[in-house]
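Each field is set out as follows.
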Amino acid sequence: MCGRYTLTVTLDELMVHFYSSLSGSVRHQPRFNISPSQTVLAVINDGVHNRIGPLKWGLIPSWSKDDKTALANARAETLKDKPAFKVPFARKRCLIPAEEMKAYPVPSLVGNARNDVPECIQQLAP
């Protein structure tokens, strides 16, 4: 499954909601189809304060020889045990604000038809 998400709220709304400041100059516009490897807004805590800034979606493990292929998904059950996620999970976490998450099912061929309709999870009430 490939995850994508939507973020349409304003930067001011994010700052108020997360009690945060900006990290450098941040440009933001509504986005409806954010996918892995793109630059996204993240809320980062420095131990005292939250700040909002851009990060690239994905994790390149420290032992990787290829810096172009980033991991985008992890299983919660094995997060603390897998070498790629162990240290980042303990020390380098952030929060990714999202309004709607989309998951595209693994393509299943039924005859000649492909099912490319995403499953959506969205906020039901403010």
The chain has a mean pLDDT of 80. The first helix runs from residue 11 to 17. The CA atoms of residues 103 and 119 lie 5 Å apart.
